[in-house]
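Q: Got a minute? One more chain.
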Amino acid sequence: MVYLKKTLATLAKKTGFIKRQNILTALDFLLVMTVGQLGMKHPSLAAMVDAIESKISRESLHERFTESAALFIEVCTQFVLRNKFQIPPLYTKLLKKFNHVFILDSSSWDIHSKLSNVLPGSGGNASDANCKVQTFYEYKQGELSFVEIMPGNTPDSKYTRQIPEKIKKNDLLLTDLGYFCLKTFQLIIQKGAFFVSRYKTGTSLWDTETSEPVELAKILMRVKGNAYQMEVNMGTDKKTRICCRLICFRVKEEVANQRRMRLKREAKKKGRIPGAQSLLLADWTIIVTNVPEKWIPSEMLWRIYSIRWQIELLFKQMKSIVQIHRSNTENIQRLKCEIYGKLIMAILINRIHGAINSELWNTQKRELSMEKFYKRIQERAFQLLELLLTSFWKAVTYLSKEVDRLMKNCMKYQQPSRKSTLELLEEEIDLKVEDLSACLA
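A: Always. Here it is, folded:
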């Protein structure tokens, strides 16, 4: 506890949050913005003051939400991200070749309209003010490794250039179309790492043997089966083309029709009509990757890509339990304090969940429900806060006992008819992607 207080005091002085001895300590402020908020439905000033047993007034707390306060909580977030404990990675047959499996995605929500000059939204039918959090999630250890707050109108593609610096040799990156970038893929390949991404319609494809352009829509129109694969060079510039596998999975007619309707709506908003190629390719989910066939057979690639949806489950907990999107403040510094404080809790809860889940899976092939675990920790937030305000070790002892007890109540039910992502990654399947001669008419 002494070490924690000294560390926080140092960070508070460096950021200018605390310049002299004050009734409200750095620890008090951090606890109310983290554990305290977790136990609040609405983080009002009155609730915050009550959480720290009225050490200061509402007016005094309001005045503490300064630029220095926001910087202090942000620095604390980076401190928590850096100081992680060792978590044994999940072991599955399909992922054993990769050191890490990273998923990059973002989540956004509307904020008070008076903050539109700082965190603008898209405008029009959308909100004038919107906040977006970019999140880097490591699946094998269940670790949130990076978070960044930005305006909601910032396209994900602008963040893509930061990806390569976070990827190392033998890592795997899973992304959606918002982050599709050939230059990024090329840098990942140069590092000896790997990517799996949806194919962006209109990106040039070239036959690896003949160097002729690949007319994908025409090829897929002739495919009889439900899957098709080929090796291609991707990109316009010959010097920067990427050699990769292109795998196509036919989707249900209902899904294809929904995609076409969405394409037509989006084109209509821009005063255009959707291209014929885009409408034809709506029948398929198309994936590109540089992962070798011997590492991940094409028939299993969709299961690998489906891991990406784990970050959607994480965002769901961040909103429904941590309530990262719940704020009605007009003060940008208070908003940043609230968001970073909630992110700290998400990082810590996810870290504990990841450690337990890895141990359970690796030893018993059982899993811990993320949703149940988040809820149970949230239910104990105020009890934990009260203990932290008096004795750090009592709080740690309490949390350790509760976590041991929660493990039994938060186990995922094993359903043979509805397998989890991990169970699917372990399962052997006989289905093979048809080769060219079998697929074409």
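A: DSSP finds 17 helices and nine strands in the chain.
Q: Perfect, thanks.
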